[in-house]
Amino acid sequence: MEFSLYGLSDIVLSLKVTALANFFAFLIVLSSITVLFIAQNYRLKRSFYLLFTLLVASLFLIVYAHDYLLFFIGWEVMSITTYFLLSFTLSKEALHKYILFAMASALSLFVAIVLLYSTQHSFLYEDAKQSYLAMSEGVQQLFTLFMLIAIFIKLGTIGFHYWLVDAYEESHNLFTPFLSAMLSKMGLYALILFVANITQVTYVLAVMGLLTTVIATFKAIEQESIKRLLAYSSVAQLGYIVTVLSVADGMGGALYHALIHTLVKLLLFINIAGVIYVTQKEKLSDLGGLIYKLPQSFVFLLIGIVVLAGMPPLGGFASKFMIYTALLDAKYLLLLAGVMFSSASAFIYVYKLIYGIYLGHPTHKNLEEVKEVPWTFLAPQYLLASLLVIIGTFPGLVIPYINRILGELNLTLLSFETIQTLITSYAQYNGFVVMGAFGGIFVLVLMMFMLLRSKAKKPKNRFDIAYCAEEPNEATHLHYGYSMGQELKRVGLIHLIAKNSSKYFYDFLAKQMQYFSEVVRKIYSGNLLLNFNIAVLFLIILLLWSLK
Amino acid sequence: MILFDLLFMLLVAYITGFLYYGLYRNITARFQRRLGPPVWQSFLDSIKFFSKEESISHGWMFYLGPVIMMSGAIMTLFFIPLFHTGESFKGLSSYGNLFLVLYLLVLGPLGNALAVGASGNPFGVMGVTRGLSRLFALELPFYIAVIALMSLSGSADIVCIASSQTEWNAFAYPLLFIAALFSFVGMMGQAPFDVVGAPVEVYSGPASEFSGKFFGSTYEPKCHLYLCKTGSDGTPLFRWCKWICRTSYQEFWVISICHRLWCNVRKI
User: Fold this and answer.
1) What predicted TM-score, i.e. pTM, was given to this entire model?
2) What is the ipTM of this complex?
3) For the stretch A469-496, what's the b/e string if a residue is b when 16 or more beta carbons lie within 10 angstroms of its beta carbon?
């Protein structure tokens, strides 16, 4: 598309279908369909659907754009429509936070794009590398800084996640899956473009990613609200991707994890939306014991947490494996140890999630009367869970698609033999055998259990438990396990993480801004004479400066 | 063929695992100036647990939890080669790697945690919380040691790591070995790290609500896991095959007895 007719002879805009764009477009389609599936359960204003469609359109514009100007337009439309979509449910404070951060992100992206344009007069992705190389070193650093700020805000890496957690927690249950699965992936898309097309920023990404995973994991452990916990977990999962993108061969692992994370976060947030829909409760302390009321939902959440924790028979392990071997290959050993450490710590919050909602004891009387969630919630979960199981069984299934993307970006391809095996330079594993072995052993052990004679009685009621020779009753507080992880605050590092928050920094920034604006208000008080005097003074200074 | 191999592996693991445990109980008893049970007592215990009736069952997740736990333990066993030379007793190790084994080790505890949660016993959940907190504290040094080994030998395949050493890795990299050993004692639930089982409190941690075969299945994976963890740490860290005869089981006897002894010294 050329604009020479309108007097803008330099500007060339283009849309292009690439494998990378198709990959993200597939994720957009998948998440919007699943999200709209559960929309039938809510009474929404018509404007919601209108804005949602606009948002999806802007996402398509972002992924299919082939130059930074269209990309920026898509980015702006996405930020603003998200603002209106969030404004249905968000409190004023959270909404202000969101819009401030979104605008900061958009503006710094704008500055970066202007810097890029200023050297070679081209917005196209192909020319980006040359434009970058043509800059002086200082400008290069400035460009990288602005670009990374824009991306980090959208991704919500630690320090920039201040808006994200509140927005996730308070957004509409229908919109949260989309927010987590898709909108953060746009930051990732920008980061992939930046890393693949322009320059590698090794250490910044490595340190940022590791800090994000570790801090967000421990922040997630201490949360009590379900959606807030999952929001922090989302941040932590994106941290893995940022970490692995710091490595030269990490793109495959990053894309794989992006796919798995999209699927699993859709699954988890839809599951949570169903639970909130039937119980009207959002806190782990208000739930509990729902396993026999919502058995299908329980199984889906179980699949979700197994994937989130990266345990073997399901798809989560495949992407974790890719990330670990990529880091191992680059000899980032301590970084790898840190990432694995935060992955092991994630077991606590995933267990807290499943225990707090489904296991243990119900905390309220009305929890004993809920029924299974409507089928509109279950249908997308069936789809997503079966996808995750299939990817776990055939981990090589997506490798050819990822290879196509890597080929386009001129990166080394991943080796691929059969769809059952996942091969990296350090090791390989056969997902089919792992799944088959687990299934076979599980069935055999189950048969052995069933053959053994058993007269196990069903307890008369749920209070029939071993309780220090006492008999608990309704008033006994039996479901306190939902607050697990609180005792970890006694550990020095975790105490440090729990105590500190980026809130203090942003409060400080706001306070400084207030002082500054008070000073400005004194000058710009609306007093005409004062303003006139200042203007004259300014004019004299300007004149003197230009005469020199 | 591979089915026979797996079956034999299970048999060997079953016998040796229980004998280790019997030996461990025996030696502990001697340190405490008791006579201790006979070495084969663990077999008898296991048979007893599995033939007894359970007093209570708390629904289907409570029933399936121990099944997952046992499958996890058996599966971990299959993915660790008992020997790195020769053809037999390799199990499924050519289909997996060390990362897989590290994560499979957590599958059993997950089943346990789910069953405990489903039982609704708060004491059990207390134990699970302690277990999970202990887990990540202990995994960090273990991960560092294992990652360093993987990087040094250039592969994450257990057989490759074991056969790439020229002298015992334990002596070549003593600091790594010590780090791994410390977390190792903890993962086994031995003396300074045994708060999960709550030996000094009224109820014994996660197993509070289990009886009969459910308890038996918490007991049996324990024995399997003893073996697995010796395997997952021992095979890469030691090159035992060159030292002691190649085909007999003596080699992992010796090492594991040393290991058990080490644990017991810690306990006192």
Assistant:
1) 0.88
2) 0.85
3) eeebeeeeebbbbbebbeebbeeeebee
